[in-house]
Design a protein that fits this description.
The chain has about 350 residues and is mainly α. It folds into 2 domains: about 170 residues, no CATH class; about 160 residues, no CATH class. The protein is built from 17 helices and no strands. Helix 10 runs antiparallel to helix 13, helix 10 runs antiparallel to helix 14 and helix 10 runs antiparallel to helix 17. The longest helix has about 35 residues.
């Protein structure tokens, strides 16, 4: 009960509190677009580097593989990134580029795939192209990002521009090169978290990062499971486990998985862990949840009363992943389940771009 002696509220002082809930001024569409793609390309470059690193280490661990299985392993890197697995350069021609010449002259499949996925300017998802596009978007919004973010991305970009040096690094110590790209991505993302205001721009960067991460994780599961299940009968237990560990390492998940699941690497457990683990930042469920949070934050700042199509799609997908069980996924079929997630992610990304960028 309010005491009789309590002062009467000052209406003039109360009203502005309600006005503060009105939508803030949105970012310019072109700035939001650049922030989104800058973050998404950095995340993509990291995934390409990790896939190449894991594949290189995996094939050293297992020793000699059947030629068909080895070819599928290397082609899977391109399949995950939605590229044609028919590697260019095998017939000796590739539109005159430096990387194309290397693809034609170096015979080993590992070298050719590595060059195609790192330096090839004709490959839209090569590391060079991803970092170049990220830097172009960052340069367009220099005033909206911190100096530290720009410096880290610019340094990473220029480290890729000396073709002779990069070529030598890839031939002598490819693992060091891939780790440098991954470290550059981690540094950039950490700087974004620590030096940017967590406002609309940061939310667009988070949305992009987690949409890319969820999408690539689904494609890693889909592609690698298809390869390994087709060859499972040809592998002994120890060799099979090494390959399943490679799937987990492709998603930075091996240590946490081992703490959660002691013993044999069961394919169903690996799939459900990468899809449904709620507290691990590389799982699909975690990424979708964070993407939904970013989308909600953007909508609430721009237009709190609106119904956002992308938020609705991500909300349904998040609820589905939250209550899903491994048995239900396997009953539906893992390929169909993964395809449905990827379609939802694509639809959410397109709806968001249409609503915020295409104005």
């Amino acid at each position: 009960m309010t005491p009789l002696s309590a002062p009467v509220p000052d209406v003039a002082r109360v009203v502005p509190k309600f006005r503060a809930h009105h939508g803030n001024r949105p970012m310019l569409a072109r700035d939001a677009d650049s922030m989104y793609w800058m973050s998404r390309y950095v995340e993509r470059a990291e995934h390409v580097a990790r896939l190449l690193l894991v594949n290189s280490n995996l094939l050293m661990d297992v020793g000699d593989l059947a030629p068909t299985l080895e070819q599928k392993q290397w082609q899977s890197v391109m399949v995950v990134m939605r590229l044609d697995p028919a590697l260019p350069g095998g017939d000796g021609g590739h539109n005159g580029s430096a990387a194309g010449g290397l693809l034609a002259t170096h015979g080993t499949l590992a070298t050719r795939v590595g060059l195609h996925m790192t330096l090839d300017p004709a490959n839209p998802n090569s590391i060079l192209n991803c970092i170049t596009k990220a830097r172009e978007n960052a340069r367009a919004i220099r005033e909206n990002i911190s100096a530290e973010m720009w410096e880290s991305l610019n340094t990473l970009y220029w480290s890729l521009k000396d073709d002779a040096v990069i070529r030598a690094r890839l031939e002598d110590a490819p693992e060091e090169f891939y780790r440098a790209i991954m470290g550059g991505s981690h540094l950039f993302q950490g700087l974004a978290d620590q030096t940017l205001a967590h406002d609309q721009g940061w939310h667009f960067a988070q949305l992009a990062k987690y949409l890319e991460r969820a999408d690539v994780t689904c494609r890693v599961i889909e592609t690698r499971f298809d390869i390994l299940r087709s060859a499972d009968t040809l592998m002994a237990g120890a060799l099979r486990n090494i390959h399943w560990m490679g799937v987990l390492r492709s998603c930075c998940s091996i240590e946490y998985y081992r703490r959660q699941h002691v013993g044999d690497l069961d394919p169903i457990k690996v799939a459900s862990f990468l899809l449904l683990e709620p507290g691990f930042p590389r799982s699909v469920r975690f990424a979708v949840q964070r993407a939904l949070g970013a989308m909600c934050a953007i909508r609430s700042e721009v237009n709190p009363l609106a119904i956002d199509p992308a938020e609705r799609i991500l909300g349904r997908l998040n609820a589905d992943l939250e209550y899903a069980e491994a048995s239900e996924i396997m009953a539906e079929g893992l390929p169909n389940y993964l395809l449905r997630i990827q379609n939802d992610l694509d639809e959410a990304a397109l709806a968001m771009q249409k609503n915020y960028f295409m104005v």
